[in-house]
Design goal:
It is a single chain. This protein has 141 residues and is α+β, with helices and mostly antiparallel strands. It contains two helices and seven strands. Strand 5 and strand 6 form a beta hairpin. Helix 1 packs antiparallel against helix 2. It comes from Streptococcus henryi. It is found in: Cell membrane; Endomembrane system.
Length: 141
């Protein structure tokens, strides 16, 4: 059974953050970038912190962006499910708040590198990646 679109859902512990039909999506797995079209083979893969691009079916120029903070993707029978700790649509991102988080993470990273606390360095690096991802996605507006 061939289909011309997929249903895409992004789910977090706070509930469904995104639920629409799409003609194409682009995600970043821990192994690299992946483009998914309708009738894609069924897969599961871990995701990196990234900007997810979703081309909607109503118009080729209608693209949604979602900041995804890791998680998993499952593609099964034209139903794409992203499960992540957190995810935000571009329209929901407060860029100035994300900018403050970036500054805070950079400061924490600098302090952690000074004290050579490897766990704090890793934590600050993740916080910085997430803040930069939110800034990038929020800037698509």
């Amino acid at each position: 059974m061939s289909n011309t679109y997929m249903t895409v859902q992004v789910v977090t512990p706070d509930g469904i953050k995104y639920d629409h039909h799409a003609a194409f999506i682009s995600v970043k797995t821990t192994d690299g970038d992946m483009g998914i079209l309708p009738n894609h083979v069924n897969i599961m893969a871990p995701l990196a912190v990234h900007e997810m691009k979703i081309r909607r079916i109503d118009d080729d120029n209608h693209v949604d962006w979602v900041a995804v903070n890791g998680g998993l993707i499952e593609v099964k029978d034209n139903f794409v499910t992203i499960v992540a700790d957190s995810a935000e649509r571009e329209r929901d991102i407060d860029v100035s708040r994300a900018e403050r988080a970036r500054i805070r993470a950079e400061r924490e990273l600098e302090e952690a590198q000074t004290t050579k606390d490897i766990d704090e360095v890793r934590r600050a690096q993740v916080a910085l990646r997430r803040a930069l991802n939110r800034i990038n996605v929020g800037s698509h507006q």
